[in-house]
What does this fold into?
Amino acid sequence: MSSLIFRISFFILLFCLISCNSSTQADQDKKPPLPVQDFITLEDGNRMFYRKQGTGQISLVFVHGWCIDGNYFQSQMGHLDKQYQLVSVDLIGHGKSDADRQKWTMQQYGKDIAQLVESLQLQEVILIGHSMSEVIVAEAAALLGDKVKAIIGIDTYINPIEQVKAEDSLNIVSSMRADFSGTLHAWMGSYFPENTDSSVKNFILQDMAEGPADICVSIMEELIHYQNQGKFPALLASLTIPIRTINVIPPDSAAWAEIKADFDWIPLQNTGHYPMVEVAGQLNAALSQTLTAVLSRQ
It folds into this structure.
């Protein structure tokens, strides 16, 4: 009898161990892949740093604006990684990426993002660009073709037809070359509303001011040059994908009517130029809403 009881007890224990192990393995299979931080080597030899996390058929590629880096999208990456595969980059000359480049053109940045998408073998992509990256993601979308399902701007795409007056551009660039930190604090400081948390504002401005001044000024020069070439509206018009922007300031409806793109605006409240940090929760909700609406049309 004691032998029978032992055998029964043994098989019960064995069954429990197998069940627990299967449950643990199943749980592990459900978990998203661990976050990745790595570099890709671009065609010009520069290494571009990226972060990748989450899982899903659709990949969201976040491209930061002037003089910051991909860390500014941390809240958005954490919010969306259960539904999407997420990638954020540090553009060349920013963050952890290399900075060995003589020309800082928007077209080259577009090629960099396109190469990233190809290198990571992303198949269905939505490009999300903040500020100056309205240009970069549009350039990348034109190169990537059917892989890109939509473009989403963050505090951008207000008036893609508008150009910078020569005198204004000269003043901006010469002031930054003379006193980068002081000019940046005065100029970019005006992009925050009065009710902005001072610690957030000061962190962003100081973070930008600690960037490589020569590179940042050269990038600004190239951006102004790109805008004043007048080719951006035609590029946007050539894209047959949805273009959306999440902004406080309403876009110029007349300019967008002239471009004739599939364009729409999702409003934000009580934020400045960096809603990724200033009103992260509000932006996260707007992004979720916009992604759902865009993908429902596919």
